[in-house]
Automatic annotation (TrEMBL):
PROSITE patterns: ABC_TRANSPORTER_1, ABC_TRANSPORTER_2. This is ABC-type quaternary amine transporter. InterPro entries: AAA+_ATPase (IPR003593), ABC_SmlMolc_Importer (IPR050093), ABC_transporter-like_ATP-bd (IPR003439), ABC_transporter-like_CS (IPR017871), P-loop_NTPase (IPR027417). SUPFAM superfamilies: P-loop containing nucleoside triphosphate hydrolases (SSF52540). It comes from Isoptericola dokdonensis DS-3. The gene is cysA_2. Its EC number is 7.6.2.9.
Length: 230
C-alpha cells in the first residue's frame, strides 16, 4: 500500500553483560499517504527507537519497514527520502533563516529562483513571513523550531519523522505550536510520524494516535475511537 508500513518491528540494544534491552518488541503500524500519526507513550517506552529504525538510523533486530511497498532493509538514511526533525532543530548558526530553509534545496541542486519562491512559501506557512534575512541567533526558541520545521519540509520529504519537536519549549508555546504544526503538515499534504509523550499534543497534531508502552503498541485510533473505547 501507499505510505509507511512497519511490520513486527524489533529494536534491541546489546549490553556488555546480560540480555540487553528490547526497546521495540514486535510493533506493526501503518501511516497512510497524507496521514499524520502520533506515537504516544511515556519516556523510555521505545518511541524514539521505533522512529530511528524507520529513519534507518538503527538496524532492526526483526521485522520490516517498507514505504510505498518497497522494503527499506539496507537502504541508507539519505536514500529513504524522509525528513527528520528533533527536539533541538540544530539550525546552522552561520546561515540566515532563509539559507537554513534553503539548505536541502541547495543539496538537491534546485535553482536559486525556485529556491527563493519555495523558501518564502514555507516561511509563510510556519508564520515567519519576512524572516528570511534574519540571523538565527536573534530568534526565540519557538521561532527556531518553526524554521527547523520549514527546513525539514523544504525538500518535500515523502515522510516526515518528528521526535518530540516541541518538548524543549514552555507549555503555552507548545500548545500554540502544536496547532501550527498541524496546519502546516495539512497544508503541505505531508505524511508524518510524530513522537511525543504529551497526550494533548498527540491528539492536537495527529489524525490517529498510536499508544505505546514498554516496547509494544497498546492501541491505535482517532480521538473518537480511543476515547469511546470501553
Ligand atoms: P522513548 O523514546 O519512548 O523515550 P527510547 O526508544 O529512547 O524510548 O528508549 C527505549 C528503551 O531503550 C529505554 O529503556 C532506553 O533506556 C533504551 N535505549 C534507548 N537508546 C539506547 C541506546 N542507544 N543504547 C542502549 N539502550 C538504549
Ligand atoms: P514565537 O512562537 O517564537 O513566540 P511569535 O509568533 O510569537 O513567535 O512571533 C515572535 C515575533 O515575531 C513577534 O514580535 C511577532 O510579531 C513577529 N512575527 C511573527 N510572525 C511574523 C510575520 N509573519 N511577519 C512579521 N513578523 C512576525
Amino acid at each position: 500500500g501507499a505510505g509507511l508500513s512497519v511490520r513486527d518491528l524489533v529494536v534491541r540494544y546489546a549490553a556488555r553483560r546480560g540480555p540487553g534491552t528490547t526497546a521495540v518488541d514486535g510493533v506493526s503500524l501503518d501511516v497512510a499517504a497524507g496521514e499524520v500519526v502520533a506515537l504516544l507513550g511515556p519516556s523510555g517506552c521505545g518511541k524514539s527507537s521505533l522512529l530511528r529504525a524507520v529513519a534507518g538510523l538503527e538496524p532492526p533486530a526483526g521485522g520490516t519497514v517498507a514505504f510505498d511497498g518497497e522494503d527499506l532493509a539496507g537502504v541508507p538514511v539519505h536514500r529513504r527520502g524522509f525528513g527528520l526533525l528533533f527536539q533541538d532543530g540544530q539550525l546552522f548558526p552561520h546561515r540566515d533563516v532563509g539559507r537554513n530553509v534553503a539548505y536541502g534545496l541547495e543539496v538537491l541542486g534546485v535553482p536559486r529562483a525556485e529556491r527563493d519562491v519555495r523558501v518564502a512559501e514555507l516561511l509563510d506557512a510556519v508564520g515567519l513571513a519576512g524572516f528570511a534575512r534574519r540571523a538565527v541567533t536573534t530568534l526565540s526558541g519557538g521561532q527556531r523550531q518553526r524554521v527547523a520545521l520549514a527546513r525539514s519540509l523544504a525538500p518535500r520529504p515523502r515522510l516526515l519523522l518528528l521526535d518530540e519537536p516541541l518538548s524543549a519549549l514552555d507549555r503555552q508555546l507548545r500548545e500554540r505550536l502544536a496547532l501550527d504544526v498541524r496546519a502546516t503538515l495539512r497544508d503541505t499534504g505531508t505524511t508524518a510520524l510524530f513522537v511525543t509523550h504529551d497526550h494533548a499534543e498527540a491528539f492536537t497534531v495527529a489524525d490517529r494516535v498510536a499508544v505505546m508502552d514498554a516496547g509494544r503498541l497498546l492501541q491505535v485510533g482517532t480521538r473518537d475511537e480511543l476515547t469511546s473505547a470501553p
